[in-house]
Write a structure and sequence with these properties.
4 helices, 0% strand
Length: 62
């Protein structure tokens, strides 16, 4: 399992755009399932308990 915060298309450039980088990504993508999560709320915000969530909301407002 490979997890990243970046889209698969951008992986080779993040690896330095070497010829081997594209080859590595191609091998990873072959027969892979890509699950792309979308949304406005970050993973960290989703996992907060209620007290931390209230604190974060107060910080956003002021």
């Amino acid at each position: 399992m490979v997890c990243a915060q970046y889209r698969v298309e951008g992986w080779p450039s993040r690896m330095g755009d070497y010829p081997a980088a594209e080859s590595i990504v191609d091998r990873l993508k072959n027969n892979a399932y890509v699950i792309e999560l979308k949304g406005e709320v970050s993973m960290r915000e989703r996992c907060m308990d209620e007290e931390l969530r209230a604190y974060a909301e107060r910080q956003k407002k002021g």
